[in-house]
Amino acid sequence: MHPIKTASAPWTDSTLPLLAAGYAWLPDRMRATDGEPVRTRLLGRPVIALRGPEAIGFFYDERHVKRTAALPGPVLDTLFGRGAVHTLDGDAHRVRKAMFLALLKDGAGVSALAEHVAQQWAKASTEWQDGRDVVLFDEAAVILARAVCAWVGVERSDEAYRRVAEDCVAMVDGFATPGPRHWRARAARKRQEEALVAEICTIREGGELVSDSGTALEVVAWHRDADGRLLDPHTAAVELLNIIRPTVAIAWFAAFAAHALHRWPAHREPLRKDTGSRYARAFAHEVRRFYPFAPFVGGLAVSDLTWRGENIAKDTLVLLDLYGHDHDPGLWDSPYRFDPQRFTDREPGADELIPQGGGDPARGHRCPGEDITVAVLSTLVTQLADLDFEVPDQDLTIPLSRVPTRPRSGFVFRAVRER
Ligand code: HEM
């Protein structure tokens, strides 16, 4: 039996401290309890935050934690969309999730998307050779938007791809904050949902898909939910955007990867010599572990529960600390050292590295886009290591109080010559 040392003052609301401290808020609170559950309130709601391998099993068990009604409206109206897979439980979730897994975990499909990204990078990089200042974050977002739109089967004009990139960035950038960033995110989502509703309707007018090998656009348009019905066009658009938007969000990891290469240039040579992408994959995993992106995930207690002797009342918001887990000194040797060697000889275990959630993606809400993230990021890292560039003076600080954060400058570079 563990001596439970929960944080004091469970009645105090932490919404403002969370907004002020960002990524540091939960790990700091966890440190104060030696990693034991933290009790507090967010937006007036009782909260318990958990961390560790055992907590992952507890959190992703649907008998304990559900997602329906767990996410606040402002997060749905910016990041995920109303009716998204993120908000479903039980059969409704399993059937919708199976669609995502079939699309996003297919090895040939993952490689094809990474290839689209490589081609778009090659195309864009010819324009950088004139020595202009390039903001990597912005360029990566456009490269990823072009690649993923081609991959899902959505064609756009050049100008419209830029808009997709900007809107997807805005949706992610504004989900966790009040004020102008939030309103920009709402407008961006509305615009992209409307455009995709039109695509879904056009596909449906063309007649039902008969083979299994359609584009993601076709698969989503003709997907039947657990009740046997097609998704309404808005929900279909939301789910298509749940493929496009997070793929564009790999731009955050691209900027972090550039930051890491700049800060620890010794990794450039092994990346250049890398055959079979082993080092690039290890580097991508370490970028996902080391840098802050998703701070935690949450759901509601299904009933009155007990976690290691601690009572959790029905409807308590249960959080799982992702960022803290990936930096827990009890789980990682020198967690604040950037070291791809952790993963050069092996792939990380399912519940070892959890920047995109834990557990089994088929049974719970773990991100179905991890294979894509790792493949695309490995591709970008390889391209970046191959490029000769200068890094002009700029503000590369990564403020932990900002969610989501990134190097303030977006990582500006100047290509020096073609290799
Ligand atoms: C950019 C890096 C990414 C990060 C940091 C990330 C992170 C996450 C996290 C933390 C979750 C929630 C896990 C949970 O609730 O337990 C999630 C879910 C999800 N992600 Fe990702 N993700 C990324 C990329 C992707 C990509 C590339 C795709 C699709 C191409 C994707 C599609 C999804 C979907 C559809 C869900 C909902 C799964 C469900 O509710 O069952 N993500 N992601």
From TrEMBL:
Residue sites binding heme per the record: C367
SUPFAM superfamilies associated with the record: Cytochrome P450 (SSF48264)
Pfam families per the UniProt record, alphabetical: p450 (PF00067)
InterPro entries listed in its UniProt record: Cyt_P450, Cyt_P450_E_grp-I, Cyt_P450_sf
GO biological process, one term: sterol metabolic process
Cofactor(s) this protein requires: heme
CDD domains from the UniProt entry: CYP152
Alphabetized GO MF terms: heme binding; iron ion binding; monooxygenase activity; oxidoreductase activity, acting on paired donors, with incorporation or reduction of molecular oxygen
Superkingdom field: Bacteria
Keyword terms of this UniProt record: Heme, Iron, Metal-binding, Monooxygenase, Oxidoreductase
PANTHER family: CYTOCHROME P450 26 (PTHR24286), LANOSTEROL 14-ALPHA DEMETHYLASE (PTHR24286:SF24)
Annotated family: Belongs to the cytochrome P450 family.
Protein's recorded name: Cytochrome P450
Organism encoding this protein: Streptomyces roseus
Lineage: Bacteria, Bacillati, Actinomycetota, Actinomycetes, Kitasatosporales
